[in-house]
Amino acid sequence: MYQQMIFVNLPVNDLDASKKFFTELGYTINPQFSDEKAASVVISDTIVAMLLTKPFYATFTKKEIADARTTSEVLVCLSAESRQQVDELVDKAIAAGGTASGETQDHGFMYGRAFDDLDGHTWEVIWMDPAAVEG
């Protein structure tokens, strides 16, 4: 059965530093789709973050590239299996050089935290109680 995928393309200032950051979070780099201009970060079977050097990213758009440290261009949200997994991933991101973003959101049935990566892109990590989703 076909599984639709998402490829999130993000401009980065330092490709090697960004690759190191995401591997420290436990993700892998797919060398088949990586070179000196881009790195394919495998987040899951259906989610890939394409880290592109800014000059390479610019070849895909005529728009000005946003500085994600000062302008919000996108909020990427990843699901987690548990509250503990939310904390583990965000804590790893902070330890790897990212920064905490916003306040912890705890609504009982839903729990989330967020971090900004090395280039300021915001990644939210959220857990939702499966019983709340079904009902």
The percentage of residues in β strands lies in 25-35%
What shape does the CA trace take? globular
**Which regions have little confidence, pLDDT < 50, spanning 5+ residues?**
none
Structural class: alpha+beta
For the biggest sheet, the summary is:
5 strands, mixed
Distance between the termini: 27 Å
How many helix segments? 4
User: Could you tell me the radius of gyration in angstroms?
Assistant: 15 Å
If you average the pLDDT, what whole number results?
A: 96
Helix fraction by DSSP (H/I, runs of at least 4): 10-25%
Would you list the SSEs in sequence order as H and E? EHEEEHEHEEEEH
Number of strands: 9
Topology:
Layout: E1 6-12, H1 15-24, E2 28-30, E3 38-42, E4 47-53, H2 54-57, E5 75-79, H3 83-95, E6 99-100, E7 105-106, E8 110-116, E9 122-128, H4 130-134
Parallel strand pairs: 1-4, 5-9
Antiparallel strand pairs: 2-3, 3-4, 6-8, 7-8, 8-9
